[in-house]
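Can't paste images in this forum, so I'm doing it all in text. The chain is below; anyone willing to post the predicted structure tokens underneath?
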Amino acid sequence: MSEPQSKEIEALTPQEAEAELARLSGVLGAANTAYHRDDAPEISDAEYDSLKRRNAAIEARFPELKRSDSPSDQVGGAVADGFSKVTHEVRMLSLGNAFDDEDVAEFDERVRKYLGLEPGTVAYTAEPKIDGLSLSLRYEGGALVQAATRGDGEIGENVMANARTIEDVPHKINGAPDVLEVRGEVYMSHADFEALNARQTEAGGKTFANPRNAAAGSLRQLDASITKARPLRFFAYAWGALSAPLSETQFGAIERLSELGFQTNPLTRLCDTTDALIAQYRAIEEARATLGYDIDGVVYKVNDLALQQRLGFRSTTPRWAVAHKFPAELAWTTLEGIDIQVGRTGALSPVARLHPVNVGGVMVSNATLHNEDYIAGRDAKGQPIREGRDIRVGDHVQVYRAGDVIPKIADVDLSKRPKNAEPFVFPTVCPECGSDAVREEGDAVRRCTGGIVCPAQAVEKLKHFVSRAAFDIEGLGAKQVEQFYADGWIKQPADIFTLRERYGTGLQQLKNREGWGEKSANNLFDAIDEKRQIPLARLLFGLGIRHLGEAGSALLANHYGNWDTFEAAMTEAEIGAGEAWEALNDIDGVGAVMAASVVNTLQQDAERAAIDALVAQLDVQEAVRRVVEGSPVAGKTVVFTGTLEKMTRAEAKARAEALGAKVSGSVSAKTDLLIAGPGAGSKAKKAADLGVETIDEDGWLELISAL
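Text version of the structure:
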């Protein structure tokens, strides 16, 4: 793990911040999968948000360290097996969060600053945030034609048969636009949840931890008759694709949905000020225990839909909405043991084994202990945390469900410490391979130095390689990887693509294994062969390069276009100098940390040999360039300078990027267009010297006015 969450962000060194961002990226990504795909969350939304907020704050202080796989750029989780996939015409995004009154005021200030408006000029709606499963319902000609979960925001699961069994979901509606995509939340009331669990217990079936899990598990049944037997409800609160507007305001659109026959939340209010928003938050919070269904906060949205359109979206969240979340929960239990796990980058991560305890409706038996400093009661610089209290096996500990895959231990009750409890001694050798486990200066993490000889690292890298966002080979998951590695069948990714050649003759060695037959063996070999043709971005992500996530892999793929160009550039690059290095760092979204990690990996002899062996087995597809049809600035690099008078700088940048342009902060020979407002100085002069086309704000608005 890395620097503990309790350390103040202002006290983090760049090295500590980098390590913390790496930790947050991994644990929040896995938490998304547990919550959105597997319907088995081990954290509360409030505590998840706490850690995600820390990630954003660190990125704000160290913008150059923002990772390509940053949780700030992720929505939901991957689609599960068993359902066909649905591509959302309009992406289903998540919401930014507010945690106190000050955050709400800052949200209003951001909205007005972006729009250039004075205080008190923007009205909002406030509505309960239902703790359920997002659902999108598409109607054409008044008929329900499609129902899909959110999935990862772009691709969801087709749950049409199941959605039709929900009483609150109309099959036909009258008076609606020809195309209407209604979005809302599937949930289960407390009374129905208790009755369902009672029936499940009586029948000897599975019981559910909380209503959200019950609702999600019920909606995502492959047998629709099971869903029909479950008491699901649906609140409508938004929309996606539309052939005609529902209203000019958010509040009016919700009223229209109600008129069309959808259930909308009766606690939705129109508020003219932030004080009114907070007052409604307090009222809903006070009524929370009596509502009969779970909520985890209050959502605020800009009421004027024209202003919503101007505000637009960040990568994963709308600028015009925020969720004001309720506080998290705590619990106390006994620490029964401490295990050390080794990840694919060699990090030694301590995990607490707990006497099971219910935290926020979820039974928790494991918790992260971050690293050796956190266990010892100090930060990376030796300063005390928890007032210097260390953590020992046998301790009575407070479990705080932060945004990790597993919760964290927040504190220790020394009055209940057993007399024979001994301080925990963190290992200095890898428990998997016996190699030295070293902690480099400035790093909060102790790492195994075994590299590819460490079985834990090798197995974790192979698991990553076959993961859903990488090669996603059907029939070859984590369990099969562990089995094949243990038997010596695969040691590196290239070995996967020679399995048929080495073991496919007669299929005897595979088909006779437990759980395998001739058909399943042939299916696996065929699935592997299907992945020989792979997009460049997926290949790059599958390599498991430290600091290179999905978004960064896509950036590199789009920039270099094909494997040969990318490989040549990484081979040529010298960290810190040279044209190839500068070109890599000039890619918008690529920082020095990521760039150095990629170059180092491609220039390590052992790693490079393994990568070359893999690529020799593949047909790596060129990246498909994004094209914005009819955009006069698609693919061009633009720079804004001076004062913009008709839109804010943030709005202008967002508009340019939406049209396919790359917005840069500096003028260079690669700049295609400079938009200069009053007060333009050195940038305008440099553009003139370089012969870069320069226009004013009116010229810019005229250029993009047709789109």
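Confidence is low (pLDDT under 50) at residues 76-81. Residues 14-37 form the longest helix (24 residues).
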